[in-house]
Amino acid sequence: MCMECLKELGHPSFEPIVTDYYEEAFAYIECSLGHKSAILLQSHKFEILLESAANALIEGYTLEAAASLSSAYERVFEFAINVFCKKSEVSKVSIKETFKQVSKQSERQIGAFLFLHLLVFGKHYTLNKKIPELRNKIIHQGYIPTPDEVIIFGELIYQEIVAITNLISSELSSELEQVVKETVQVRNEKIPKKMPRATTTGTMFFSLTNTDRKETFQEALSGYTESREKLFGSVPYLFSFSKEVALYTKLKSNV
Ligand SMILES: [Zn+2]
């Protein structure tokens, strides 16, 4: 919904605005009153990719779902590396320069994750060995998986992501907060200065802000399917309701 309407009217307009977003994780919207604003997501890349995988799977695109899952798996290591580096208080510039040298090879990033985990927690992290095997078959051999095979692959990746993010949320909460803040700041800086903006927690399939995270990929998928149906199902009702609200607001201001 338009936050400018909320400011101007003192109550929500209830007009639903559906918009797409891409790499930069923000979108420009315009409501029927002509307010132009930007809406930006707080979600990290791996959360966005997980949701993209869920959307593809629900719509029957199994290869695309598997590819998004594979990318989410890679991006969670980048996220964890950033949080671990905050613990050591290294500068943003140094992190950026170092990451640049490993950015094109995910295996290097996984290596960095394993050793930083060892340094931060003083113990080793054991990766699930089944993931690379399945990932190679799907991603590098162009195999088109069935929905059940995607669910098996999704479950392995989801469990790895849950394990890593639970560890970070419980042990490195202030470092996590800093990384979230910086992610939003980078997106914020790309929006023209005078443009009003609002931040949303973002993804529904998996969200770091949600303390009640689903334990399995299957559970997360059914929860998300239900939320997605409710959300899209509510759009026509919200449209009608927003028209009534606009009419009532107009009548009230004429009295
Ligand atoms: Zn508006």
Descriptive overview:
This protein has 255 residues and is mainly α. It contains nine helices and three strands, in the order αββαααααααβα. The chain has helices at 3-9, 45-58, 62-87, 92-100, 106-121, 130-140, 147-171, 173-189, 217-254, and strands at 26-30, 36-41, 197-200. Strands 1-2-3 form a three-stranded mixed β-sheet, covered by helices on one side. Strand 1 and strand 2 (36-41) form a beta hairpin. Helix 2 (45-58) packs antiparallel against helix 3 (62-87). The longest helix has 38 residues, at 217-254. The radius of gyration is 21 Å and the shape is globular. The structure holds zinc ion.
Chemical compounds bound to the protein: zinc ion
The major β-sheet equals: 3 strands, mixed
Output the number of helix runs. 9
> What is the helical fraction, as a range of percent?
55-70%
Distance between the termini: 27 Å
Give the tally of β-strands: 3
Task: Looking at this protein, list some descriptive labels.
255 residues; mainly alpha; 3-stranded mixed beta sheet; 9 helices; 6% strand; globular; binds zinc ion
